[in-house]
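Recap quiz, item 2
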Amino acid sequence: MKLLHRIMVGLIILGVGAVASAQTADTAADGVRAADAAWLKVYSAKDLNKSVAFFDDQGSLLSPNDPIATGKAAISKLIASDFSFGDLTWQVDKAGVSKSGELGYTSGKYKFSFKDPSGKPATDNGKYLTVWKKQTDGSWKVLFNMFNTDLPPS
Amino acid sequence: MKLLHRIMVGLIILGVGAVASAQTADTAADGVRAADAAWLKVYSAKDLNKSVAFFDDQGSLLSPNDPIATGKAAISKLIASDFSFGDLTWQVDKAGVSKSGELGYTSGKYKFSFKDPSGKPATDNGKYLTVWKKQTDGSWKVLFNMFNTDLPPS
């Protein structure tokens, strides 16, 4: 019975360890999911300053039909143009964070509603990928954000 | 003199520590840079099996004008279509790896040479972002690869 008891205790410890490990991973990814959601909130409200502030100082926006924009001045121009053109929303699908907890990613789908040249409402559907870097103050900032359309070429 | 000596030794240790830390970061990023270069080699040679094998089993290809392709079967279809359409090359610009060493990224520019519908040689220039995950065997595999064009809408 003693041996069985020891095995049982061992299995319980292993089980608790596995649950703890899974929880750590979930909690870590929750950080970038929360950052992704907080970014969407200020982006949907078209708050330019707060939207740009989500980028790391070395961050880049990799937007279709434009060269890579690195740094807040270049990024601000692109986002301002985006705000004037239509309404963006997105939904995270996958998220992950490194074991060390300072590098992460979110990815999902976006929907961009705008008016076509004739004034008719139109929608672009696509996907995005964001690489996040944790700052020294604990906040997550965008190192890279990239998106492209799912629609066939026009 | 003794205090000065101690301060000097302290500064030297700090200096060596800073150099060692910078070297660690560089060496870590070298891993994803090498993986990026090895992938480019088999991609340029249009080796479909080896190109697809660079993806993690849960990997996704986020290609313009198509929904997210996850898993090797869906990715293989997209890459095969790419191979038949033209010649791709790319150059890494930025690379980084988490402190824990299992999550990394590469980003840079691509050039895609193809023939337009009239048969004339044409070139698309754009950018890419790849998220890499180190496997249990120590190799780096692609968790996400995404690209889009720098050119204005056609």
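Confidence is low (pLDDT under 50) at residues 16-24 of chain B.
The first helix of chain B runs from residue 2 to 44.
End of item.
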